[in-house]
Structures are given as structure tokens and as C-alpha cells.
Amino acid sequence: MKEAAAPQSGAASLDERAMLIRKMEAYEARYNPELHLLRSPFSSPGYHTTIREAEFIHSTRDSLSYALGLLDTGLACYEQRAFDVIAKVVSLQDTDRSHDTFGIWSWFYEEPLAQMSPPDWNWADFCGSRLVQALARHGQRLPEPLREAVIQVVDNACEAIIKRNVGPDYTNIAIIGALVTRIAGEQLGREDFAAYGLQRLQRLYDYTRERGAFQEYNSPVYTYIAILELSKLRAETADPAVKELCNELLELTWGTVAGHYHPATGQWSGPHARCYETLLNGQSKAFLQLATRGAVQFFAWTELPYEEEWYKSGFACPPAYLDNFTDPAVKEVRQLYEGDGKNDTGRFAVTFITPQYSIGSFSRSDFWNQRRPLLAYIDNQGAPAYLRLRCLHDGYDFCSARFKAEQQQGEVLLGIDFITNGGDTHPNLDPTGGVIEAEDLRLRLEIGGVLEGVSVQSAEDGAALVIAETKVVLTTWFAAFSACPDPARSLQWENGRSDQGLVLDMILYSGPRTAIHLAALRQAAVVCSLDFQGPPAGKKPVVEWAGDGMLRVSGSPDRHQAFSLSLVPGPA
């Protein structure tokens, strides 16, 4: 779990300016003096950009972060370079009011807005936030022509943000747009921008307080962004009302982080509505160490990988939550995060944490690759192992498979069925129309992280895993998928390996590429349990055919219905 140990007292003497200067020095080899931009290795999420292969690109957002970091060092030797970078990115904004893309930037210098598919309107928020912070902190240092140019493009970005007017369900952009418009309004004397920024923040506050959580529930990525951007807004604004709203939202957000932290593995417990990496990366670890001032420690302070946008942001975990990062107590977090919880309309998230493991599950979810609907972290001799449930279509997470579960502490009763009006690789961007071409379709319990000494044994009705002192029992109670070549073949969990580690796979189909018409399947559903408290002796769930195409699933004969599954795939 811990890459290095350092005394907590080291936090008291932290010199963040020195850390920032080291970060800027590390960027030296990436600066392109001909373009006045920062060069980065190319990476893409697979949408917006049409670039498929490139060794390097020049990012507008990252270049502005670099320029702001250069100015924040206060070093005169960096000043002209920062001015050059800002001037270059300023020149790349779309300033033609007849365009839909007025006020935004392209992701990369190499790809103009007209070539993106589609352009990303979030870049008004991302680039605007860096520029408005540069104005607030260093406006008096900017040469007057450059300062006037920055004021104009910030004005354009604010207009684009207000025109788009995203709702409070788009958390990170709701916050960043509020930051840009509010601080621009204060800095430029624009009451309309300032009023809009406050109103946008108030809408987010009302929406989040009613739900008790952000739309991207317990997301390590989006929660980090929310904390950072709310902290920046609180630090930059002069308005007590804005500061108070930020404080309230930060209190709620840090409660989520502290409530889901698992001390034994140093991981952020599931379930996660949005997640890019199952194990915390170096940036997340460094952020938590700095925010808790060493209550959690992954690095020696002199080796902590500092990010330039942390400087002067003022993020810090409230003292009341610090004990959560070290206390190994058993606890359960049960959160209604969508709907009213009545008549099967609500969505719940449940996390059970013990000194040895944490297990988190949603009551309902899809299997988008950014979701973690069932996720466990287990202490493997001081290092983290994890369990993640997936449904894979030709090796990629399949969004038309649906997950349902009921969790009682360390026992999870779960079901999987299929829908005909869902997506393939994305919940709604690539609808299947109820038909998929496939060579392979399978359920997978992925076992990743540190796997030394881990044992996995399949059985006819499931499998057993032993990870250090923790035993996990996977039991199948019902499994059918009528597209199997051999309908008589029982569906079982099979041991294997993948790039992520060990796997237990239930193969629903594997063979020549064929069209699977989901609605034509006679039966397509799976019911299993995952038990961290030992074998489920005497706790056999009840799986009943209801006569209306539904399976009713209960934890036991004397317990209420946990969930229902569509035995025959249909619309959601």
C-alpha cells in the first residue's frame, strides 16, 4: 500500500513553492520554444478527437496550466515564457460569433476545432479557469496588450459557458463554470457574470444537498476535481456567500472521501459511478497525502509528485474527518443517491468496511467500463488486491448487461440480466438495437492488484478465493443464456488469467462470430452471491419464476424481495 513512509510531522514544514518550482523544472524538456506550448505524449479517450495515432501533441489546457504554474513560482526567469504560452493559447480560441464553437478551444494545437468530432465545449471551462486565475493572481504582471487579450477571451469563454448553461448533474463542469464566471465577474466588474456564477453554484448546492451526493457518486476522479475546483473558487472569491457555499459542499464531499477510505489497503472503496483506474494512481495518492497533511502517507515528502494546479488552491481535509483515514473500525455506508427509494425507484450504494476488506455495490447499474458496480478491496499482507465484476463483449465492457444487487454487510446477492434498448461500449452513444455481433460474451470476476499467495478454486456451483486472511465464496444460484451452442451446457465459473491478473469467467457465448438477438433469447439471466463471511450455509436465496417474464429474487424464504430480473431481454 505505502510506497514510502514519512513522519507526519514533515507536513508542518512543507514548502509548496519549492515543490512547484521542482515541478516546473521537470517540465523543461517538454517545452516547445517554437510553438510556445507544452508537448505531451498523445492519449485519447476515443471520442472528440479524430487523431488516432501520434507520438506527441500540444494540449491547450495543459499549456495554460504550465503557464500559470510558471507565474505562480514568482521567478522572473519564467515570466516571459509564461507570457508567450498564454499569448499562443489566447490566439487559438474561436472568436467568431457566428460559430457554435465561439468561446472555446480545441484540445490540441495539431487539431483545429473544425476537425474535432465533435468539439468539446468543456474547453471554455477548462481553459477559462486557468486564464481567470492568471488574471486574479498575476493580472498586474501581464503586459497591457496581453492583459487586454486575456480579458477578451475570458469574456468570450464566459459567454459560451452561460449560453451552454449545464445543469447541476454535470458536477465538475458545473463547478468550473461557476468558478470562471464568478471570478471573471469579480475581476472584470461584470455583475452579470458574477451573478450567474453565484446562481450556478447555488443550483449545484441545492441539487447535491437534496441527493446527499454528487451525480458521479463516490467517483475518485470527479470527487477529486470537485474538491480541487471548489477549493480554488473559495480561495479566489471575495464574496462571503460564495465561500460559504463552497465550504458546505466541501464538507459534504470530504465526508464521502473519508467515509469510503479503506486504511488497510490505502484504497478508495467502491462502488464508483465513474472510475478510470481500479487502483489509486500516484496523483490521487499524493493528493490525499497532501490534503490530510500526512494522516495517510504514500511518499516521502521530498518525493511527493506535486501538481502545479494544487498551488494556492487551499484544499485540505477538515480535521473532523482525519481519523477516518487511520481508524480500522467496522462500518457501513448506505446511501440513497437517486430517486426516493419507494416502489423500487431508488438507487442505493452500499459499502461495508472491515479491517481486512471493503466491499461496495450499487443496487442497480450498467456495466459501462467507467462503472464499478461491484468492487472489493482486500488486504493482502499489507498490499491491495481487488475484485471487480464485469460483463465483456469481445473483451470490452458491455453496457446492455444490467447489474442488480442487495448487500447486507459482507454478503452480496447479485443478478445480471440484459436489455434491448441499451448501448454496447457506452450507455447511449452506440445503441445496439437489441442485436450484437459477437465472438465472445462472458461475465468476469476480475482479481487484480497484488496477487502473491492468492488461491482460486472453481467448483460446480461457483468458486472460492483465499486472499491472506480473507476467504470469499462465489455461489451461482441461477444461470441461463440460451444463445449457447449447447443449451444443455451448464454455465460455470472457470479459472483463467488476463492482463489484469486472475479471472473467474462465466462464458455465455464463445465461438464463430454471430449475431445475438437479445430479444430472441428464451432465458438470459444470472443470480449469484458473493460472501465474505464464509460459505452461505442455510442462507439459500429464493429465485422464483413469476410468470410475467420476470425472476423474483429474495435473500431467503423469510426475507423481502431483493430485486427482480427480466428472464427474457426487453427494453429497460
Overview of this protein structure:
With 572 residues, this protein is α+β, with helices and mostly antiparallel strands. It has 3 domains: 15-120, no CATH class; 165-317, no CATH class; 331-540. The chain is built from 10 helices and 24 strands. Strands 6, 7, 8, 10, 11, 12, 15, 19 and 20 form a 9-stranded antiparallel sheet that branches. The longest helix has 21 residues, at 144-164. The chain starts with 15 loop residues before the first helix and ends in a 6-residue tail after the last strand. Mean pLDDT is 93; it is low at 1-7.
Question: How are the secondary structure elements laid out?
Answer:
Elements (H helix, E strand, L loop, with lengths): L15 H11 L4 E2 L4 E5 L14 E3 L1 H13 L6 H12 L32 H16 L5 H21 L6 H18 L2 H21 L8 H17 L3 H21 E2 L4 E2 L13 H10 L39 E8 L8 E7 L3 E6 L1 E3 L7 E7 L2 E11 L2 E2 L3 E8 L2 E8 L16 E15 L5 E5 L2 E6 L2 E12 L11 E6 L2 E17 L6 E8 L10 E4 L4 E5 L6 E6 L6
Antiparallel strand pairs: 1-2, 2-3, 4-5, 6-7, 7-8, 8-10, 9-13, 10-11, 11-12, 11-15, 13-14, 14-21, 15-20, 16-17, 17-18, 18-21, 19-20, 22-23, 23-24
Helix pairs in contact: 1-2, 2-3, 2-4, 3-5, 4-5, 4-6, 5-6, 6-7, 6-8, 7-9, 8-9
Number of helices: 10
The total beta strand count reads: 24
Average pLDDT over all residues: 93
Q: Label the overall shape.
A: globular
What is the CA-based Rg, rounded? Answer: 25 Å
The major beta sheet can be summarized as: 9 strands, antiparallel
Percent helix, as a range, is 25-40%
